[in-house]
Please model this.
Amino acid sequence: MTDRAADRQPTDVRFHLPAPSLRALVTSYCVIDAPDPVVDFTHPEWANIRFLLRGDLRFGDPDGREMTPPPNASIMGPTDRSWRFDSNGGMTIGIGFTPIGWLSLIGTDASHIANGIVPLGDELGEPGEAILERLIAAPDDVARVAILDTILTALPLRASHYRDAAIKVQEALLSGVIDDVSNLADTLEIEPRTLHRVCRTAFGFSPVRLLRRQRFLRTLARVRASLDRPLGQLIDEHYYDQAHFNRDFKAYMGMTPRAYYDSPREILRRGGEERRRVLGAQVQGLHVNSSSARD
Model:
């Protein structure tokens, strides 16, 4: 009998940078091309838009319960937990937004769809299904990226009186220096209630949840980059100890670190390698923006 595992074709994960004027708003375009069945997980991420170009796709909680297909053109809100996803084979292309990109290009309150998936609708200026048809008809990644660049560049930037504060918050989160809400408010000179509204509107979560999320993602990236080193040497300095990190890991990923690293993680591993090679960050939540943004 033929060994079916040996016949499997590897999943291809490709990242493409957006046009220079979009790089403070869009982290990347991500193409996942799975010729064969696959099961994997997401990390906590900023919001993104996902188009299913062919095949099938289902999302659910980490233990695999209630796996359901999302709309073929969908918005996935910012997350502070993992999604499990599976497919019998298919191809997707996604648009990853920075929090500032969400505020500027989509403009709705991100907390309303945090940890959720909704139909795209016409948030990009034309119906999501119409954009999907154009992407399906495109011959390759280059053509698809050109379509998405054109659509996003043509979108008028939405006005928000939270924009300047959100930029400060985003920079503070990426710096990894601050791990306390009071310190964050004092350092950024933002009144605590305003800080709470800014974070929920642009980032989807309260300041304390954002700080915890970023602490976890910083440690996760370090561990993935240095699997040969003891975990105790890699955890973020704001964790009390390794047990503290282990509890956060279970809360965010729905599994223990051992279960995570013993799993195949075919897409996560390939995606992390490619994201770091192309974008300089292993996970979307640690992506550093280019300064060449639209005004």
About this structure: DSSP finds eleven helices and nine strands in the chain. The CA atoms of residues 106 and 142 lie 24 Å apart. The beta strands are 12-16, 26-34, 38-41, 48-55, 58-60, 73-76, 84-87, 90-97, 117-119. The first helix runs from residue 4 to 7.
